[in-house]
Amino acid sequence: MYKLWKLRRLRKRAIDQVHGRFERRAAKATNEPIDSFLAEYEQALKPVEKKFSHLESILLLREARRLAIDLPSVSDWWDYEFAEQNAGSKAIHLSEKGRIHVARLIKEERFKNRDRLIKQAAALITALTGLIGVLIGLVSLVSILKK
């Protein structure tokens, strides 16, 4: 998930760069129609968003595969337009809703793994504490019998 965090930071920087460029342009040109300006701004952001959403989708799918999470074939989780545009590639692309749900599934699976690890550690510590108690009892019994 570190890669995903890093990717989101890069996306924010890229969006901020586009925003800064258009902000400077808006400050210079006061008589430009706002509708054309906003349409141009959205056009400049679209490739950035598309690139980063595709990379985020790839990272989430890799992480889900690594954690052995079964992804349901819910139709609104997948971006079929992306598949049609890139017919030659075998890339699978998640929609915005799909990315949110897969990220949630990954988070839940990690929580389950962490919870399972904590329970096992607690059981091990309990067993070791009991064993140490038995050893202390045996040592005290042996010392009493020697006297």
Tell me about this structure.
This protein is mostly helical and 147 residues long. It has one domain (2-146). The chain has helices at residues 2-28, 34-66, 80-85, 96-146. It is elongated. The model has no long low-confidence stretch (mean pLDDT 81).
Features:
single chain, 147 residues, mainly alpha, elongated
Short description:
The chain is mostly helical and 147 residues long. Helices cover 80% and strands 0% of the residues. The protein contains four helices and no strands.
Query: How big a fraction of the residues is strand?
Result: under 5%
Report the sheet with the most strands, covering strand number, pairing sense and barrel closure. none
Head-to-tail CA distance between termini: 63 Å
Content-based structural category: mainly alpha
SSE pattern, N- to C-terminal: HHHH
Total beta strands: 0
Q: Helicity, in percent?
A: over 70%
Q: Mean pLDDT score, rounded?
A: 81
How many domains make up the 3D coordinates? 1
SS field, number of helical segments: 4
Shape descriptor: elongated
Q: Over the alpha carbons, how many angstroms does the gyration radius reach?
A: 28 Å
Poorly predicted regions are none
